[in-house]
Q: What sequence folds into this?
């Protein structure tokens, strides 16, 4: 074994979207710091390296990527996976040219400050880390091409991950899309775009989800729409179901089928046109999760499905953003990157980097500004994530509002000044009595002896 000794201020494990956003802002805040980045992939971009060829962002490229480099063509543009990978390559090259960053692809962490090459196992490295080790892998993004499905697959079954849809050269009598989240949405839309008749598409949706209307997250929405509109509904409701119904009535949240009440909220975002296309699929299988696949048949939690056609099963069931337990972002010599704002991971990583430098040495204050927001799964998780996001944003606005206004990854940076003033006034109005009302709603959804879900995470957790 050959052990190589390195020195750096920061060791960052993971060159995915959050890791790159963190390093980029860290360099801006401290142009003298040195950074070693370690990643299992051959190129930066994390899960984008494994995603299906036709993948695009679901939210505007305006506020995705890193702070120092624009992405996309502005407006509602949704960059493709190819564009995103090229973008991260440009960002990395800029980092390397600065002399601040050293990059070790196709390498894996061994824990602590050691890592090794995946191609030459005898090549190990130990980093003398002067400041912090940064875990940029905690969010654990999965895509179907990188893991086996959790259900059994009998011999002779034709099952492919969504990636393989781009390589099909023969038609099938029935296409069965397994998974009701973002990946499943993309699979259904691609099949329709390729001319597959809706009656040949079967969509396994174990539990319906609320969809966010993409128009609601565009900059310069009127006050009372977007996130502020969500808060209006929550503060006017006596319970969570009433709030969700009001959000649906107002078009702020969308349903695949208006007659089926969603129980999940996974941040999936669609346009009205995309929703119209999805609703063309009449053969939606709502019998719970798939337990087993057989040639031309499925065994589900609540029944069986079969077809006499030549069936292609398409796996879209990977848990792209699983709900992870909250832990302190700052713990002594370690930083664990987590989301600090509902469904906004890359912005969160950049903010953590800013807080790391600006409030260095005051871990209590750092963690107070960086309360993790677990990725929502169930509808009540939406309430929790929204409450934590609102509390974080109030703290940020008072402490570093100017940074929020200048950060490209912040939705606020793309608002016009008049609209920003209107939004701020609206937020202040909601804040009066709003906190107590949110606590009542949370107590309804997290009753009994459950830990206060909005309590700050501590070192003991």
A:
């Amino acid at each position: 074994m050959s052990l190589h000794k390195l020195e750096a201020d920061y060791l960052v494990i993971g060159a995915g979207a959050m890791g790159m956003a963190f390093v980029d802002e860290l360099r801006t805040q401290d142009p003298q710091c040195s950074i070693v980045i370690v990643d299992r992939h051959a190129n930066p971009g994390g899960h984008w390296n494994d995603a299906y060829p036709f993948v695009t962002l679901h939210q505007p490229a305006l506020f995705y990527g890193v702070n120092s480099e624009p992405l996309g063509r502005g407006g509602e543009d949704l960059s493709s996976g190819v564009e995103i990978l090229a973008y991260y390559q440009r960002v990395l090259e800029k980092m390397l040219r600065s002399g601040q960053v050293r990059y070790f692809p196709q390498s894996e962490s061994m824990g602590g400050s050691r890592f090794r090459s995946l191609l030459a196992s005898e090549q190990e490295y130990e980093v003398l880390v002067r400041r912090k080790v940064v875990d940029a892998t905690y969010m654990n993004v999965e895509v179907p091409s990188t893991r086996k499905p959790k259900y059994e697959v009998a011999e002779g079954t034709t099952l492919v991950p969504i990636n393989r849809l781009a390589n099909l050269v023969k038609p099938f009598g029935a296409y069965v899309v397994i998974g009701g989240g973002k990946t499943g949405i993309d699979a259904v839309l691609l099949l329709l775009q390729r001319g597959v008749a809706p009656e040949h598409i079967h969509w396994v949706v174990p539990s319906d989800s609320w969809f966010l209307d993409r128009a609601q997250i565009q900059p310069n929405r009127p006050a009372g729409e977007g996130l502020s509109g969500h808060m209006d509904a929550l503060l006017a409701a006596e319970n969570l179901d009433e709030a969700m119904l009001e959000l649906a009535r107002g078009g702020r949240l969308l349903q695949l089928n208006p007659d089926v009440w969603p129980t999940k909220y996974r941040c999936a975002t669609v346009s009205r046109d995309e929703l119209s296309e999805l609703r063309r699929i009449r053969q939606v299988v709502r019998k719970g999760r798939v337990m087993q696949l057989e040639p031309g048949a499925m065994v589900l939690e609540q029944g069986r499905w079969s077809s006499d056609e030549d069936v292609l099963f398409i796996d879209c069931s990977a848990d792209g953003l699983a709900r992870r337990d909250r832990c302190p972002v700052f713990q002594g010599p370690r930083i664990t990157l987590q989301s600090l704002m509902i469904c906004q991971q890359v912005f969160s990583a950049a903010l953590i980097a800013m807080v790391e430098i600006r409030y260095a040495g005051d871990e209590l204050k750092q963690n107070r500004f960086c309360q993790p927001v677990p990725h929502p799964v169930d509808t009540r998780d939406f309430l929790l994530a929204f409450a934590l996001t609102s509390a974080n944003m109030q703290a940020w606005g008072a402490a570093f509002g100017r940074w929020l206004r200048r950060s490209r990854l912040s939705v606020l940076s793309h608002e016009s000044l008049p609209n920003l003033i209107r939004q701020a006034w609206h937020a202040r109005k909601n804040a009066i009595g709003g906190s107590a009302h949110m606590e009542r709603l949370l107590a309804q959804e997290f009753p009994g002896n459950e830990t206060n879900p909005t309590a700050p995470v501590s070192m003991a957790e």
In short: The radius of gyration is 23 Å.
